[in-house]
Amino acid sequence: MIVGYHVIFSTYGFWLPNDPRGSWSDFVGSWELFRYGPATKTTERRSLAYREHNRALRETAKSALKYPPVQFTGIQARAVARGFAGYVARTSLPVWACAIMPDHVHLVVGRPPIPVERLVNHLKGDATRELEREGLHPLARWKPERGRVPKCCVRGQWKVYLDPPDIPRAIRYVEDNPLKEGKKKQAWSFVVPPV
Hints:
Layout lengths: L3 E7 L20 H4 L20 H8 L11 H18 L3 E6 L3 E7 L5 H18 L24 E5 L4 H14 L15
Antiparallel strand pairs: 1-3, 1-4, 2-3
Helix pairs in contact: 3-4
């Protein structure tokens, strides 16, 4: 019985649709980026992050992006968390773990009353509004005279369905994620232990 999700979504430029390790993308929407290869669609369900690959090619391809890859600073991560906290306060979404990394976000959440894909869109939207409200949006200087600031998070998410026995492992994974990158463990006010 699915009682929650471990969701991961990334910032702009973190994982390209033609990443040499594989991606979940069907196409590359930018000609400049397509020059570095077609989409590398994979059906692999395990993380590809540690798979051997051509790092130089990946970094060169990132230079073809329209905007620089987004890397949240600590202050920006705090604003993202305030956006999440606002959503949690309005909806009572149970959040059991959260790690806001410079280029991606991990959340372990209880099963929401809406599709998890829509939930992630709401969380991204609230985080973006908070970044803009605080004047911290990482792509603010690329905002057109008329229009919106470019999105700092990419479309989609990676999700894992969680049965009750899976929850402790997922929480531990998310809580330990910052430590793997030499950062401190994160503690957010909207995170509560599962009942």
